[in-house]
Amino acid sequence: MLTARRRVVATAVVLTGSLLLTSCGGSDSGSSDGKTLRLWHYEGPTSAMGIAWKEAIKEFEATHPGVKVEFEEKSFDQIQKTAPMVLNSSDAPDLMEYNKGNATAGLLSKQGLLTDLTDEAAKRGWDKKLSPSVRTTSLYDTNGVMGSGKWYGVPNYAEYTLVYYNKDLFKKYGIAEPKTLDELTAAMDTFVENKVTPLANGGAAYPAQQYLYQLALSKADRAWVDAYQLYKGKTDFHDAAWTHGADTFADWVKKGYFSKSSSGQNEEAAGVSFTSGKAPILFSGSWWYGRFKTDNKFDWGTFRWPDSKLTLGSGGNLWVVPKAAKNKDLAYDFIDITMSKKIQNLLGNSGGVPVAADASAITDPQSKTLIDDFNTLSKNDGLAFYPDWPVPGFYDVLVSGTQKLITGSEKPDDYLSDLQEAYDKGAPKQ
């Protein structure tokens, strides 16, 4: 999720041609048995992607008689931490969902652990179905930097961050939907006064660092993002934007907007605190949307982070084919099915942001709003990627640092110095 797109207009919903499935088997199958597709991903069963990919498995098995899909659900953190080791072993799956960006998919491509998908992308038309902005994270150069080079992954959805809020709790305390950041902070003050911790948070995973990055983005511009994510200039973690992000985050901890106990919680705990009706606000990704449609038992809504032209977002996580995969042609066929109109339309109507759907087939009103907001962000060049992308290991650095801000064991200035040191150590020398 978590985890660059160029300054290009991206359209999340585009018309596609008919799906062409190729037969299984072929010259690039290694020691393929041709009978099993081992698939790993970390999307929950009620998420839009989980729903769509379950249907894709049915479609795959129907179109490949005698072939079975062996699906293993992994957690985001599990794959994040173990992928390099697993992909360098005989236990590698045939197809895997993996985080996009320089520090993740880019690093694996540089290490030679991923299959080059360039020929397949051209042959099967994936390169035509994905807009330039969305496919940025599919391409990596020899240094593992996204945006150019060879295809090493295929996203079949897009994503961005937004504010989810519990309308029932807002109504209970007489709070209107915030339209500005001042109104949002006033709303959070009202919740704190009523002994309600306003923000669902997970300091042990990606949620906390994404709050802080969004606060920094509210004071940033495209040149700032390009310097940080694409090395097009110098990144100074003590500049006005990063300083505002760290200082404001620490201030919000002191004001009680985040709970101190959230330092040890992961993304699942953050999501559950919202779906349970405990936390009135969660700032996180569109990947939660489908699950919230199913799990929330209260009236809820969304709005974009106020007073900011930029927010976190990109094409979705990638389908990657490990270099050691034994049934690569089956993996290519499965990717093809997830890019079909049938699966894309299902993904869109289930609360996801499809990349190759038939726009007229998206009939759910909430889903249309979600997709329209993504298109507006993309059109206005508002997608700023994710904070952990630039350098290998940065995700863990950010997790550790934001945990210290939550517990108060580190000051913002020291936190920013730690980020600078880790970033400068991992970024390409210019």
UniProtKB/TrEMBL annotation:
<dbReference type="InterPro" id="IPR006059">
    <property type="entry name" value="SBP"/>
</dbReference>
<dbReference type="Pfam" id="PF01547">
    <property type="entry name" value="SBP_bac_1"/>
</dbReference>
<protein>
    <submittedName>
        <fullName>Extracellular solute-binding protein</fullName>
    </submittedName>
</protein>
<dbReference type="InterPro" id="IPR050490">
    <property type="entry name" value="Bact_solute-bd_prot1"/>
</dbReference>
